[in-house]
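Hey team,

Filing this mostly as a record. A colleague (T.K.) asked me to run one chain through the structure pipeline before their review meeting, and I want the input and output archived in the tracker in case anyone asks later how it was produced. No errors, nothing strange. Just documentation.

Input sequence:
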Amino acid sequence: MPAREILAISNNLLEAMRFFGRARKDGVVEEGPGVCLISCGLNYAAFNAAVLSEPIGPHASELRQRIQIPVDFYQSRNLRWTYWLCDGVVDTAVRRQSQSIFSRFGLSPLTDPPGLYADCLRPPTRPLPSLQTRRVTNEQTRLAFAHITGVAFEIPFEVCREIYGGAQAWAGSFQGYVGYANGLPVTTAATVVTGDVAGIYSVATLPNHRGKGYAEAIMREALGQVRESTGIEATVLQSTTTGLPLYERMGYRQITRFSVYIG
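Output structure:
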């Protein structure tokens, strides 16, 4: 059985990604045997995913079965998609074969972000900027969230508006925050609570405002609100290469890694 921290990271990511399947009327969240299929309904791979929902044992046939299910699903819809494999929930021998197995299904490696865990956040090592943080609760904050996310992650605004601009998905576990500096929206974050951990996602800052501490400020504010309402201290996230030094300063440590494939 994978370590508790690994399961916490993997399960939290799965819940966070369900947001994409709830974002639009033609979105889908389908729980398959050992794998969850999440589709926003648009032909944009970042928002169509397959995510393991149960660990994989020592038989490679298990992995092949859990790849075939989303392959059939997305091919029938003619959609680009990604497969998120948490390395820590896959048997070591199967993991060594995984890239060649995915290749046989026509999927290529895309990225391999580390999965991070912090029992509690360390105090800031520098003064943080003043930031007014608003929860995503109305059209204005939804569109601000979509704009910042699109610019930061180089996603067309039309796509981000389709995903983040509607009200229906925000009624679930995915809670968004927009940070305002001098009245202007400049940074975002989102939280998802599962079990005894809070995940932090969609940490993004507009290019002209980077390097000023806004990302750390909104992360601490968002996680602080979770802590006040739930008592939860432990947090998890998946990191980009550029964000890793910040997260390590905040007290996160790498527990696992995700292998992400694109089809």
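Quick notes for T.K.: Helices lie at 4-22, 60-77, 92-104, 139-153, 157-164, 214-230, 244-249. The chain has a mean pLDDT of 96.
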